[in-house]
Design goal:
Blueprint: H1 3-12, H2 20-34, H3 39-49, H4 53-70, H5 76-90, H6 101-104, H7 108-125, H8 133-140, H9 145-163, H10 171-187, H11 189-203, H12 208-221, H13 235-243, H14 250-265, H15 270-280, H16 296-318, H17 322-345, H18 354-365, H19 373-390, H20 397-402, H21 405-431, H22 433-449, H23 452-471, H24 475-480, H25 485-494, H26 503-515, H27 517-522, H28 527-535, H29 545-562, H30 570-584, H31 587-590, H32 602-611, H33 618-642, H34 648-669, H35 674-680, H36 682-689
Helix pairs in contact: 1-2, 3-4, 4-7, 5-7, 7-9, 9-12, 11-12, 12-14, 13-14, 14-16, 15-16, 15-17, 16-17, 16-18, 17-19, 18-21, 19-21, 21-22, 21-23, 22-23, 22-25, 23-26, 26-29, 29-32, 30-32, 32-34, 33-34, 33-36, 35-36
């Protein structure tokens, strides 16, 4: 081992075994060698003699840097040396009479670095200086898998470093990429595609790794080469044969799927795209997604089906001619059941937006009135997908119930994630109202029957659908109970949910009942059931403080809406709320942290609205108010009398308590209008004045 090899090893050391001073000297020594005029020859010699991967990597990295930075100032002899040596290495030929097998037998990252050096040369020299690089490479593929592997790595590196638009490119890089692609199309793409076909055909039973590498490489190039070179009677049958061959490794079959997806995604005018999609007979692979939902092959086929469906939907939107439009819809109807299955059971590719695709499909349904049976079925499947997607993961159940840091983060994430899905739900509700309402009814009925370990998430999701449906309904439809609403709301009120103690379920239940209050205004026979929901342990008496406070606020809104219709129930309501009123003004409650606007005082505003109506007889009104105000005022007076004898800590607690009582009286007064307390019933005004 010479000094350079030692210095390279020292400079790459990460074990800490090399002294830091020595390592620094080694790095400086390597840098000095890089500056010598003969550095390219030194690197090439090392690559043909040395088996140490760190040395090989350093030499290839140095060659790549020298070519990239100094190419324009190099002599023609130096360029020729690098070109011939590097090409000999990738083709497994002798370099200066020595074998280049060392590099090709090295780990993948060394071979990738060698490919990168060749691509750097192609950047500067193809096609003007070195026009034969690809044509010269093709005959070398007969040498077997090692050279085929290097050929694929060179093409992959060319794509990564220059052609692919997945990475940001400079204007110069885009110009060079266009020049290289134009030259390849004219000169050698056809031969390269023929080589791909021959290699896969020849090695499909003997070398799966080589075939997988070839197909992965080919997939990258389909987007810009002539599609007819791939989409023909030779290649497409071969690809599907590989996809459907049970005995082949999944990676090999998955690579074939990737190529078909690249064909499907090829940009072209809609009529040509439709013709192409019709020839693929994609239904051949539908059965593969239902095999094992976790496998790599299933994920690849799922991506193919969703990609295909997006392209077909695009044809439906863009083709106006009746025949073409009908043909597109036929293909779409054929693939949709598999797409719905994928959405619910498989890992969906990140480039595919479920909501965007389904929203696009629902938009095509708007022109159909009435919907055909097939579209009604699809509407139901879309709703099934929405229900699956909006469901919380049971693993977060406890976090969401106690609302710790993880629970807060998960709830915030789901609120954001659900937005577009619930917009989609409302779109389906407008296009297929009956299907939507029946689906929600059945979802709620089914959710209740699930075992305890599942029904929390199922019930919460079903209630969320019912709540969101209400947002899209007109006031008239809500009031009259259009469609199945006259069945849904009573069902909501009468269903006993075994998981009602859960915070999320309790909250969405109360929000949903409030959402449909316009229906209750017209159907007053359900008022007792509404009051029960708010006044028992499902609402204001719920053990979770977040639920009970929210219930107080929502109950106040319910009272505002129902007003005089609640007069017959006032005494029952006040009786139910006695403990809540007492708790709000107690020392214990005052010391609790109060959350923003939902501090519990809304219950007093609700009571004020109830007893402050002119529909309540004056004597009753006076009695109700007196029974509330007198104990509150007495509490304040007693506390003020005791205040002088308290220590500072006790005083703070008392003052907080007095503040609670003042808030309660203030909230109570909001239910009494000015005319009532000054003109029509001044005695009430005097009570507040006191």
């Amino acid at each position: 081992m010479d000094d350079l090899e030692k210095a390279i090893l020292f400079s790459f050391d990460e074990s800490g075994a090399i002294d830091s001073m020595l390592k620094s000297q080694a790095v400086n020594f390597c840098q000095q060698i890089k500056e010598t005029p003969s550095i390219c020859r030194i690197c090439i010699e090392k690559l043909s003699l040395c088996n140490i991967v760190q040395v090989q990597f350093w030499c290839l990295q140095t060659l790549s840097e020298v070519v990239r930075v100094k190419y324009t100032s190099m002599s023609s002899e130096e360029r020729n040396l690098i070109r011939e040596s590097v090409f000999s290495m990738v083709c497994c030929e002798l370099v200066d009479g020595k074998s280049s097998m060392r590099v090709l037998e090295s780990p993948a990252f060394i071979r990738n670095k060698l490919a990168q050096v060749l691509v750097t040369l192609i950047y500067f020299e193809y096609p003007l200086i070195w026009s034969s690089v690809f044509v010269d490479f093709l005959p070398q593929l007969n040498k077997g898998s090692m050279v085929i592997d290097m050929f694929c790595r060179v093409l992959n590196s060319l794509d990564d470093e220059l052609i692919s638009l997945d990475y940001p490119r400079t204007a110069d890089e885009l110009t060079v990429a266009a020049r290289i692609k134009d030259a390849m199309r004219q000169q050698c793409v056809e031969q390269i595609v023929r080589a791909w076909y021959d290699i896969v055909s020849m090695y499909r039973s003997s070398d799966f790794e080589v075939c997988t590498g070839v197909l992965d490489c080919m997939r990258r190039y389909i987007s810009w080469i002539d599609i007819n070179l791939i989409a023909n009677d030779a290649f497409i049958p071969l690809l599907f044969e590989l996809i459907l061959a049970d005995g082949l490794p999944e990676q090999f079959r998955g690579a074939a799927v990737g190529c078909v997806l690249a064909v499907v995604s090829k940009r072209m005018d809609p009529q040509s795209k439709l013709n192409l999609l019709q020839t693929l007979q994609i239904s051949r692979v539908f059965g593969l997604v239902s095999e094992d939902g976790e496998s790599e092959l299933v994920s690849k086929v799922a991506a193919l089906l969703t990609g295909y469906a997006m392209e077909v939907l695009d044809c439906v939107k863009r083709l106006n001619a009746e025949n073409a439009n009908e043909a597109s819809k036929k293909l779409l109807n054929e693939v949709l059941p598999s797409v719905f299955y994928v959405m619910q059971n498989c890992e969906v590719d990140t480039t595919f937006s479920i909501v965007q695709f389904l929203s696009g499909y629902v938009a095509t349904m708007k022109s159909l009135s009435p919907l055909k049976e097939e579209q009604r079925l699809h509407a139901g499947q879309i709703l099934e997908v929405i229900l699956t997607q909006i469901r919380y993961d049971p693993m977060y159940r406890n976090n969401l119930d106690v609302l710790d840091k993880i629970g807060i983060e998960e709830e915030d994430r789901m609120v954001e994630y659900r937005k577009d899905l619930l917009v989609l739900l409302r779109s389906v509700g407008r296009v297929a109202p009956e299907v939507t309402q029946v689906f929600i009814r059945n979802s709620l009925a089914n959710a209740v029957t699930f075992s305890a370990d599942r029904n929390v998430e199922e019930v919460e999701a079903a209630l969320t659908l019912l709540y969101a449906l209400g947002e899209s309904m007109s006031e008239e439809a809500m009031r009259t109970g259009a469609g199945h609403l006259s069945e849904l709301v009573p069902m909501l009120l009468q269903t006993k949910l075994p998981c009602h103690s859960n915070r999320l379920v309790a909250l969405v239940y109360l929000e949903t009942v409030t959402r449909y209050m316009k229906f209750i205004q017209e159907h007053t026979q359900y008022i007792p059931a509404v009051l029960a929901a708010f006044l028992d342990e499902r609402g204001i008496h719920h053990p979770n403080v977040h639920v009970s406070r929210r219930a107080s606020y929502l109950f106040m809104r319910v009272v505002k809406l129902l007003k005089a219709k609640l007069v017959p129930f006032i005494e029952n309501i006040l009786q139910s709320l006695q403990d809540t009123i007492a708790r709000f003004t107690s020392m214990n409650y005052a010391s609790k942290e109060l959350s923003g606007s939902e501090d519990g005082s809304h219950i007093f505003e609700a009571i004020g609205l109830l007893i402050g109506m002119e529909d309540v007889p004056p004597e009753k009104q006076s009695d109700y108010l007196s029974s509330l105000l007198t104990p509150l005022c007495q509490q304040v007076q007693t506390m003020l009398l005791d205040a002088k004898m308290l220590n500072p800590e006790e005083s703070t607690a008392k003052f907080a308590n007095i503040q609670q009582i003042i808030m309660a009286i203030n909230a109570l007064s909001k239910g009494f209008n000015e005319r009532l307390v000054t003109s029509s019933r001044p005695a009430i005004g005097l009570m507040f004045k006191q």
